[in-house]
Specification:
Order of helices and strands: HHHHHHHHHHEEHHH
Radius of gyration: 26 Å
Distance between the termini: 107 Å
Helix content: 40-55%
Strand content: under 5%
CATH topology of the largest domain: Arc Repressor Mutant, subunit A
Number of helices: 13
Amino acid sequence: MVSPQETPMTLNRFLSAKLEEMQKKNPRFSMRALAQKAGISPGRLNEIFHERRPLSDHYSNRISYGLSLTQEEQVTLSSFVTVRAKRMNFQKVLENQELRLITSWEPYAILNLMKTDDFESSTEWIAKRLALSVEKTEECLNLLEAQGVIKMKNGRWLRIPSQLTTTSEIPSSAIVEGHIANLRKSEEALRTVPMEKRHFGTITMPINVAKIEEAKQMLTQFRRKMCLLLEDGPKTEVYNLSMYLYPLTDVNDRDFESPSVIASQIDSSTT
């Protein structure tokens, strides 16, 4: 028979003991309070506590902060990080994260929500403000943290001044999926957001195709000016500005020709 002293330490026993120590100091420090302090959803934390989800370095660091572990205790907790988690192919994971970042509107919404005046680091608060599930919100936060654009410090999410970069070229299909995600979100806004809080406009026109590049540059400059205008003063909401310029005529089987060529064709057809 194995004596209590010989009972091997498990992740569940270790975390439960540390949580009990915290509760002796503060009886109101519940599992939910730990989840909020660590920036982990209660459901995910419960899975880790009961070893239904493998502990990773990422969650080990979060829980260490939440439980105020000493340096020695942090080393002990890190020892429970699974071999499977340690052997993950980091490059592949990073590339997948980059694609998810490009094809989703949610991470960018969270990044900009962090710039609002009343931002709170609670996962539940972020989820409520963006009408997302807690699980989806946590997934996006993990993604942004892995990409090095946000970090948790003293229980608060902070943006890290940097530009998002990728380890490889982003496939055009991923960029297309990102635009489609924005279109779906705009359709939802068109149906649910009151007119006084949004603007949808469209114009159809015949164009001189030789001026497409100039038009793109003007649209880019306009977006930047609009950001400067709307970000001036108190910031309380997050908006998306999407602009699409595309042909209604079939251009797939027709090369864009110069205005002079088109003009000569018109002249010859009228003589």
